[in-house]
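[Meeting: bench + compute handoff]

Bench side (C.D.) handed over the final construct sequence. Compute side (W.E.) agreed to return the predicted structure before the next meeting so the bench team could plan truncations. Sequence as handed over:
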Amino acid sequence: MKTTLRITAAVLTAFAIGSGIFGIATAPAMAQMQSGGNTTATTPDMSMDMGGGGDMMSMMREIMANHKLGTISSIQNDEQGQPAWIVGGQWIMEMASQNSTSTSNTTGGIGNIADFHAMLQMVRLNGSAMHDHQISNFTQTADPTFDSSTNSTTITGTVTITMREGPVPNVPITIQIAQDKVIAITPDAATLENHFGNTPIYGIVVSPEMIQQMMQGSMDGTMMKSSGGM
């Protein structure tokens, strides 16, 4: 178990290094996964085949069999229903179980959710009023449901969301994953006084292939600079 936790931390660290966009959201998860209850735990050597698709790619696939993660990139409306806010950030989901092949057609292969964590940065379209939100303490309230017509899985639960006045616990939330590529996060509007407007917070589900491409692109760029290329 501790080995798996360390490998998970290594994969997420590799993503943070390769993409430069996921360090914030993975920090709490990595701290927990690295330690596994032992603060002296260490991660494996990060130099192993970062761009070649070997050991690191195998680890990514192994870990992402029960984790989903990605970025947030969304436009939210104001009280008048007009686009007014940009929301960016990162998210990670840990699945407590995967459904068997015989039942995956009813849930899209997503089993019970052990945890969901997101870090959001929110700013007006004119660049003012920049602030942060954190979504944590996810508790699932019903089994995931799968819509075969849209190839989407819907998960419901409650979370804690940080607001200006302080953390708001037990916020009902719906998380939908479509085509294993898009995530739509919908916290209860009434509980948060419609802070995120009247549309879901949208983002992207990152695949192992995308992580590999990011890392390879970063390595290629470094090699070009070191060799004097444009």
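W.E. noted at the follow-up: Strands lie at 67-77, 83-95, 113-124, 131-140, 145-147, 152-163, 166-178, 182-187, 201-205. C.D. will use this when planning the next construct.
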